[in-house]
Design goal:
heterodimer; A: 583 residues; alpha/beta; Rossmann fold; 6-stranded mixed β-sheet; 5-stranded mixed β-sheet; 36% helix; disordered C terminus; B: 221 residues; 19% strand; globular
Chain lengths: 583, 221
């Protein structure tokens, strides 16, 4: 097969050539700057969409022109009981600058309710089995004015373990039990405020999962459902989404839900931190200076301080769309806008996928990304951010960059610690873990106490994380050989994913000497250095980008689909989470 | 094999009062105003000594503390114990304690209270909280008058652990399946011998120990 030259296709898919700058990778709370082999394909997010000029007007328009539903004002009457539920701190990531979009929505909705004489209003954070948000976090999310007016009596976290606060509303036709928050069930109207960041969020998952209890969640957060999902980021092919939809339809039969969904652009960093999202080839001298300064500062700080520093930078997200009305049409429209922003078309799968795992995930905001969550980020999220086919081909190698420290948050993740230290040495089979231990953890009075009275994730939550991470392995396992299957098992991928070059699993920091000996990942042939990390200037002998010989010409192995893709948070998640099919 | 058991410390763990509150209650309910005032003042002045003794040794603390009961009649102590429960102990139960006990009961755990308090002072509370068994310290009475000494075994620190081990052997309980809850570093032996220990409203040293051993830390307040 004749080698095809690889050019920079567009701003989202860039090929490394001899004149390319080193690339930036997240490495937990640190940053890595690495030379990648010539021919490596690097995937960047699309440029942020323009935020709405007048978000308030857009929200009001959505409320007055809902999808397949009466306008909100037409559903209100004095004396009615209304519950407003909203997404918890796991969305968006990282937490956005204030005012949070939920605050913007609440201010308008509450004003509307007050104008129509609706006084019996409760605001519930739909945290499901996630940790309860702290008072400070809720205040930041909804604004001080709303917080002072409603908390703590009428603004609180959902409690999935409150025996008096949960009520059964029926079963799906497949037998899945549907238990929901009593206040929501007994309300005349439930308004759900959603932020949609990944396709598995929103839609029927909002009420059906956010306000449910362990028994309901257990029906779909289980290994077989995850295994049956080709990608749970691709709703039509996700068994998880199908089960959530079934539960959602039962919810719609019993509750009057007015769904408000929003889409944000992907402006995760701006201002002085905007360079993190840029193509490294386009860095200015000042960008390089800032990057070196940040790297130096991070190298001098203890881990806790680094974590604090990195999590202290809020995202500069802007509202790009808001729809309201019936759950399904609203969700369909929001997903379209999400895909417009996030989906990047990638042609062809790769043999080796390199991803840097960042410092944050939905489950460790203001906390530690422990080893179990690293696995979830890698195999549950980053691997699954695709539609069509995964970025990584069957039997391929996933190279993860994260220090994976043995650090645990005793307040937020107590059951994770026991799960990791006691159960994983015995077995990593998520079916066995579920059958043998999940109920023990879920019913452990200590973990229930910490969930209800502290800020701990539910005792069963690590089991959901484990099954989430299984998807990558199971997706590959469907048609790969046992040997290949082992390579993509969670353990190997997180702890010691082997590469053909027998490199350690951690992506080593390239020293100038090492770079001089850098080799093609696939054929082990040497490639000459082109960039000096210290000087950030191309070597004098480096040929121009256009004149550089293609990798295929250098090395026949590049001719096939044997190139490595490098993705970076937010690039990786924002591109591949909604990436167009790679075919 | 018997069903798994949950062992609970009482003071500071399930209720916010401690042994000194109990002593204070008995001191201010002496027959006669002057006697009550004198006993209360003596108890109040002893508090720093109790604190120092507790920091030094639980055994020394017990010998100093229970000496204050010397000379009191058994009838009166038992009579006042019911008032103690109504006025002091029941209002002092942490809100989270009811939830914790309820969840443990639903899980099918046998509930056992293991406390260094006096048996007659916790009987009513034990029944109120629904404990299946209760083991507490017993005051020695001679001629129905308290001597200020405790009958062995004295429930404190390692003795609690020893009692639990004997209890488990007798009942055929696998301690690996058992739970234990305490707020104090002095109960470390008890916590260390079960499979599911948890620090409840812990002091600083127990919190540090719990974090080192990856034990859950509960706040029932």
């Amino acid at each position: 097969m004749r080698a095809q030259p690889r050019y920079k296709q567009d701003d989202t898919v860039v090929y490394i050539d001899r004149s390319s700058a080193p690339r930036l990778l997240f490495y937990g709370e640190d940053l890595l700057l690495e030379d990648l082999p010539v021919g490596t394909r690097v995937i960047y997010p699309k440029a942020p969409m323009q935020g709405l000029a007048n978000p308030e007007a857009a929200i009001r328009y959505a409320l007055n022109h809902p999808e397949q539903s009466d306008p909100l004002f037409a559903q209100l009457r004095p004396g009615m009981r209304v519950t407003i539920a909203m997404d918890d701190i796991s969305l968006p990531l990282p937490p956005m600058r204030t005012p949070d979009v939920r605050q913007q929505l609440l201010e308008i909705v509450l004003e509307l309710l007050a104008a129509h004489g609706v006084d019996d209003v409760h605001l519930i954070v739909a945290n499901s089995l996630h940790r309860r948000m702290t008072a400070a976090e809720i205040r930041r999310m909804v604004g001080s004015k709303i917080y002072n007016a409603f908390a703590p009596d009428r603004l609180y976290n959902h409690d999935a373990e409150d025996p008096d606060g949960i009520v059964n509303i029926g079963h799906t036709k497949h037998g899945e039990v549907v238990n929901l928050n009593r206040r929501a069930v007994e309300s005349d109207l439930v308004i759900y405020l959603n932020i949609n960041l990944v396709p598995m969020d929103g839609g029927h998952k909002s009420v059906g999962v956010g306000l449910c209890d362990y028994a309901t969640l257990r029906a779909h957060h289980e290994p077989q459902t995850i295994r049956d999902s080709d990608s749970y980021m691709d709703p039509p092919r996700s068994a998880l989404a199908h089960k959530c939809n079934r539960i959602g339809r039962v919810v719609d039969e019993h509750l009057n839900v007015f769904h408000i969904e929003t889409a944000l652009n992907n402006r995760m960093y701006d201002g002085q931190m905007a360079f993190i999202s840029k193509n490294e080839d386009n860095y200015t001298e000042f960008d390089r200076l800032k990057l070196e300064g940040l790297k130096w500062a991070l190298s001098k700080l203890p881990r806790a301080a680094k974590r604090k520093l990195m999590q202290a930078v809020p995202a500069a997200y802007e509202l790009v769309a808001c729809y309201a009305g019936k759950t399904e049409p609203v969700h369909d429209k929001i997903l379209q806008r999400n895909f417009e922003q996030y989906a990047v078309k990638v042609r062809g799968q790769c043999d080796i996928l390199v991803v840097g795992i960042p410092f944050i995930s939905p489950y460790n905001v203001n906390s530690i990304l422990n080893p179990l969550l690293v696995q979830v980020m890698a195999l549950g999220y980053l691997f699954n951010f695709y539609r069509g086919k995964p970025l990584l081909k069957k039997g391929g190698v996933l190279v993860l960059a994260h220090p994976c420290h043995d650090d645990w948050d005793h307040e937020h993740h107590p059951s994770y610690i026991e799960f990791f230290n006691r159960l994983l040495p015995e077995t990593r089979d998520s079916f066995v873990l579920r059958e043998k231990y999940e109920r023990e953890f879920a019913e452990n009075p200590s973990y229930i106490g910490m969930y209800r009275r502290g800020h701990a994730y539910h005792g069963a939550h690590p089991f959901f994380m484990c099954i989430g991470a299984r998807t990558a392995g199971s997706t590959s396992a469907r048609s790969s050989s046992p040997a290949r299957r082992t390579r993509t098992s969670p353990r190997c991928s997180v702890g010691s994913a082997p590469t053909r070059s027998a490199r350690p699993w951690r992506w080593r920091r390239a020293t100038p000497a090492r770079r001089r000996r850098s080799r093609c990942c696939t054929c082990r042939r040497s490639s000459s250095p082109t960039w000096s990390e210290r000087s950030w200037k191309p070597a004098a002998s480096a040929p121009s980008r256009r004149a550089s010989p293609s990798p295929g010409a250098d090395c026949s192995c590049w001719a096939g689909p044997a190139f490595s893709a490098r993705s970076r948070w937010p690039c990786c998640c924002t591109t591949s989470r909604r990436s167009g099919a790679s075919t | 094999m018997s069903r798994p058991t949950a062992f609970y410390d009482l003071e500071g763990t399930l209720i916010r009062t401690n042994l000194v509150h109990t002593l204070g209650f008995f001191a201010r309910n002496q027959p006669g105003l002057l006697r009550s005032l004198g006993k209360t003042a003596r108890t109040a002045l002893s508090v720093p000594l109790f604190v120092a003794a507790d920091l030094y040794s639980r055994k020394v603390f017990n010998s100093l503390y229970f000496r204050h009961y010397a000379g009191q009649s058994e009838d009166r102590l038992r009579y006042l114990a019911q008032e103690l429960f109504e006025e002091v102990l029941r209002p002092a139960v942490f809100p989270g304690a009811y939830e914790l006990l309820d969840k443990a009961r639903r899980l099918g755990l046998r509930q056992v209270l293991v406390t260094g308090a006096l048996d007659f002072t916790v009987e009513a509370l034990s029944a109120h909280l629904g404990f299946d068994d209760c083991v507490a310290n017993r005051l020695e009475f001679v001629g129905r008058v308290a001597t200020g000494r405790l009958l062995p075994p004295v429930m404190a620190s390692a003795t609690k652990a020893s009692w639990i081990r004997c209890f488990a052997e007798r009942e055929g309980i696998n301690l690996s399946d058992c739970f234990a809850y305490s707020d104090s570093m002095s109960d470390l032996p008890m916590l260390a011998m079960v499979g599911h220990p948890a620090a409840v409203n812990p002091d600083m040293s127990l919190r540090a120990t719990a974090e080192r051993h990856d034990w859950p830390i509960l706040n029932l307040r």
